[in-house]
Amino acid sequence: MATGSDNSPAGALRRDDGVCFADAFARALLRARLAAVDDPPAHGAALVKRSVSRTVWRVSLDGQDVYVKQYHKRAFGHRLLHGLGVSQVRHEAKCLRSLSAAGFPVPRLLAWCHRGRRQWVCTLGVPDAEPLDVWYARQLAQGLACHARVRQATAVLARLVGALHRAGNVHRDLHMNNVLIREWADASTPAAGGHGAIELFLLDLHRMKVRPVWRRRAMMNDLAYLFHDCLDSATRADRVRFLVHYLDAMGGEGTRRDWQMPIERHARSHSRRQFAKRQRRMRGGVLTP
Questions:
Q1: Which of 85, 97, 110, 258: CA 20 to 30 A from 124?
Q2: H helices of the chain, where?
Q3: For the stretch 73-86, what's the b/e string if a residue is b when 16 or more beta carbons lie within 10 angstroms of its beta carbon?
Q4: With the CA atoms of 191, 57, 19 and 175 taken in that order, what torsion angle do they form, in degrees rounded to the nearest 10?
Q5: Which residues are CB-contacts of 31 (< 8 A; sequence separation ≥ 6)?
Q6: CA 126, CA 107: separation in Å to the nearest integer?
Q7: DSSP code at position 267
Q8: Are residues 45 and 57 in contact, defined by beta-carbon separation less than 8 angstroms?
Q9: Which residues have C-beta within 8 Å of that of residue 69, sequence separation ≥ 6?
Q10: pTM, rounded to two decimals
Q11: Which helix (H) or strand (E) holds 123?
Q12: Alpha carbons within 13 A on the beta-carbon side of 170
């Protein structure tokens, strides 16, 4: 039975068992299939990715892909936050709803649950989309013929991140695997950008923060995560082009040079931390990213 909820965003439909549906469409799609969302591997779900704190599954419901992100409280920090009443589940659901309402491209939120061991967020899949890092690697493998597509995607990504920061949102986990890309066949499609238009969608918003004004370092750290992903494959011209589009969309102060060198320094520092963390996990026998 659906009831109201003090902790649920406006318009959410909350059940007595702790499940919150984002709207009537989500309730109609999931109500009779909650067992598949609560326990995806037992219902033939495909594993998408796994880490110490989260596991993502893909479930097919009525011919539609639905993604379930399960949260685990294995690390001390996660258990501490949970004990203090901080819910990454509710936070991500709130961010998905607020960004969608503001016109930012994110997957459609369906439902979420934060009760005991049941910690998950469920979203509708984006048809014909793939992770940006997979798409980017394929473009690079095809050589010069695809450089125009890479430049177009770079401009779209830069303007999206610039608009996100201008609106006071800092992602804080912004790497290429947390962005989906969808290509359209022609310019008559909803995505603007000329022939073969490109759409990008932001994922994994559980760490996102919102403030009216951010210090420049916080925004640079977001960009450093992206630069870390393509530091070895992207040219300096690619990074300059990204910053030109980003600064135009973000409307920030300072020149491109004022931003470029600190971001690249943060990216190299982030790369060193990531490599060190990976080595520690390998020594401990943990091979997940």
A1: 85
A2: 24-30, 34-38, 76-83, 88-101, 132-141, 147-166, 216-229, 236-250, 256-283
A3: beeeebeeebeeee
A4: -50
A5: 21
A6: 6
A7: H
A8: yes
A9: 54, 55, 56, 92, 120, 121, 122, 123
A10: 0.84
A11: strand 118-124
A12: 18
The structure tokens 């963390």 sit at: 277
Show the CA angle centred on residue 35, arms to residues 33 and 38, nearest 5°.
Answer: 120
120: β partners: 70, 113
Distance, in Å, from the CA atom of 102 to the CA atom of 57, rounded to the nearest integer, reads: 27
Distance, CA of 266 to CA of 45 (rounded, Å):
38
The residue written with tokens 């109500």 in the block is 31
> What are the structure tokens assigned to 107, written together?
């997957």
Residue with tokens 């109609």: 28
